[in-house]
Amino acid sequence: MLTFTERLSEVIDRSIIPQPVIPLFTLSLSAEERTRSRHRFETPDGQSLFLRLPRGTILQDGDLLKAETGEIIKIAAKPEPVLTVTAQNPLDLLRAAYHLGNRHVPLEVAPNYLRLSPDPVLKDMLERMGVTAIEEIVPFQPEIGAYHAHS
To answer: Where in this chain does the record put each UreE urease accessory N-terminal domain (predicted)?
Structure first.
């Protein structure tokens, strides 16, 4: 079983690794799965791999991981069910972000939309506020939080 212990996206230095890194394969993980620093996963072809990363590591789309034996894989954000929130004006979108933040909801923030995990109570609240909340299946990349290091 491959054991991945290092996140290269944080330490990659072109003077040390001058050529582009070619990953062995891409591992697609949901937003929740990308928060697991110690976990066993299975690839689509049935190969087992284990993450043994520093506690608190939150993987992002495009991160590269290195195994103890030198193999490198790429992390991809897997499409998953979400609510995508849009509004007619920026103030309504800011108000929606404020109310979702008060509920400590993992939230992806973009200039023209918010994205969160599906929740019928929150969808109803958002629609009552006058914003649009549609169900989609797309990669979900929530903010990692103010107390985590941003890369």
So the answer is: 1-73
Fold of 2-77: HSP40/DNAj peptide-binding domain (2.60.260)
User: What residue type is assigned to position 31 of the chain?
Assistant: A
Superfamily of domain 79-139: UreE, C-terminal domain (3.30.70.790)
Q: Which residue has the tokens 């998953």?
A: 80
Sheet holding 79-86, edge to edge: 108-110, 113-116, 79-86, 132-139
Quote the radius of gyration of the chain (alpha carbons, Å).
Answer: 18
Do the beta carbons of residue 67 and residue 5 sit within 8 Å?
A: yes
3-state secondary structure of 35: helix
Q: What is the pTM of this model?
A: 0.83
The domain segmentation of the chain, as residue ranges, is: 2-77, 79-139
pLDDT in tens, 33-58: 999 999 999 887 888 999 999 998 99
Same fold, 2-77 and 79-139: no
